[in-house]
Amino acid sequence: MKKLSSVLCVFIVFVLIVHFSCERKTSPASPNLPPNTTLANIPVDDDTLFALVTLHWDGEDYDGFISGYQYRYITKHLFAGDSVVQEWVFTTETSVTIPFESSDNLNYQRFQVRAVDDGGGLDPTPAERKFYTVQTIFPETEILYFTPLDGPHQIMAISRDNTNLVDPVGDTITVLLVEPSFEREILIIDETDEALFTGGLGAYKDKDALVDSFYTDIFGTSDAWDFQSNGMPPKSLLGQYKLVIWHADNPYSNERDVHKLPAHIEDIKDYLHVGGDFIMGGWRILKSFAQSEAFPKAFEEGTFIHDYLHILEADESILIPTDFNGCTGFSGFSDVKVDSVKLAEFPYFGKLGQINVMPRRAGFTDVIYTYANELSGLPNWRGEPTGIRYYGTSFNTIVLGFPLFFVDKSDAFIMADEMLHSLGYR
Question: What whole-number distance in Å separates Cα of residue 312 and Cα of residue 318?
Fold first, then answer.
């Protein structure tokens, strides 16, 4: 019995040795099948397009999965005769927008895309789309507006379009920037054209010195700038003064003689933006901002009159018969009368016409003068504001709708003192 057991044990050990010493043969691995790529049918073959083109595609792999794509394009310049071959670019996306190289008048584009599978295999027959593109033109750059900081600057700008063409020249401006010092008090800008004091005002024709002395006397400053002789003062000069007073006291009827302040209003805006104060007055001064338009006129948002002076509507009295003989003071301002001696001749007869009034105003404005005339005079404009003051957060303004030079000088002294006092200069 023991002998049988021993034989049985030896046999089992032999079987186990034979079993574990033999390897089972397997079939060889199947070769990796290449993926396939399909392009969307837009754009259609042989179409002529703008250089910026979007293309879409998809891929499939029967024995794995798609890990990404490679694309490129080849450009043939049909007129020049040469070609440009781009490098393959890898992406995991299924679309791309390409600014195709299109430097010739007409360009033949051959776009190719091929799928890449999980084994690194490439589609041996990339999907293709062939089309034409027209020439792209380099953009041109122009600097239109610049809001700078203090100091000298040279600013250069270049532009690039959506086909990646870059303006090879660009545009450059050189600016000298001045920080306002406000070291001086008051500058008077004399835009009054005394050559237009004709007819009943002939006694004051070409009397520039007389007008100059009137203003320097009542405002107590000798700092004046003659616009007729020197044009618009430079910003470097404006920035030295806390307050600019602009007068244009001559009448006008011809459009070529309209006051020139509106043509330089951007300079005044810049001055106000940095904190300067501004008083303006004159004969038909508001009309000069809309010479060709009928009054009464509403001034829209975006205009200097609306946004900076806070005047919503302006009107103008008639020239004949003249009717305005002074102002009634409001908000602590005194009544004033016109100088009837200066206005004694025809057609004025001691009064003024074509006075600008401001029937509607925006917030933060105070009426300081209203239109006054005799009780037998025209009621149309009586009591309408002819002078307003605006208190702002960074600047203050006063607008007078009449020529101050033709106010009685003793009253003009009081006017000047009260206006300066209200703005904090006296």
Answer: 21
Confidence grade of residue 168 (pLDDT, cut at 50, 70, 90) = confident
d(CA 73, CA 140) in angstroms, rounded, equals 27
Query: Could you give the C-alpha distances from 366 to 311, 342, 385, 391, in angstroms and in order?
Result: 11, 30, 10, 8
Question: What value does the mean pLDDT take over residues 268-294?
Answer: 96
Structure pTM? 0.64
> What integer pLDDT is reported at residue 4 of this predicted model?
47
Rg over alpha carbons for the chain, rounded to the nearest Å, is 43
Partners of 371 in beta bridges:
327
Q: Distance between CA atoms of 120 and 123, rounded to whole angstroms?
A: 10
**395-408 pLDDT per residue, tens:** 999 999 999 999 99
Cα separation of 299 and 156, whole Å?
A: 37
**Taking Cα atoms as reference points, which of 43, 42, 72, 37 lies closest to residue 58?**
37
For residues 76-85, average pLDDT: 94
Question: Do 276 and 181 contact (CB within 8 A), yes or no?
Answer: no
Three-state SS string over 26-79 comes to CCCCCCCCCCEEEECCCCCCCCEECCEEEEEEEEECCCCCEEEEEEEEEEEECC
pLDDT digits over 349-397, tens only?
A: 999 999 999 999 999 999 999 999 999 999 999 999 999 999 999 999 9
Q: Using the 8-state DSSP alphabet, how is residue 379 labeled?
A: S
Kindly tell me the burial class for residue 295, based on how many C-beta atoms sit within 10 Å of its own C-beta (0-12, 13-18, 19 or more).
middle
Mind giving me the DSSP string for 120-173? S-B-SS-EEEEEEEEPP-------------SEEEEEEE--B-TT--B-SS-EEE
Q: Where are the alpha helices (DSSP H) in 276-395?
A: 304-307
Task: Return d(Cα 324, Cα 301) in angstroms, integer.
Answer: 30
User: What structural domains does the chain harbor?
Assistant: 36-134 (2.60.40.10), 138-177 (no CATH), 184-422 (3.40.50.880)
Q: Is residue 45 packed enough to be buried (19+ CB in 10 Å), middle (13-18) or exposed (0-12)?
A: exposed
Burial of 320 (0-12, 13-18, 19+ CB in 10 A): exposed
Query: What's the rounded Cα separation, in Å, for the pair 97 and 368?
Result: 64
CB 282 within 8 A of CB 257: no
Sorted by sequence, the CB contacts under 8 Å of residue 375 that are 6+ apart come out as none
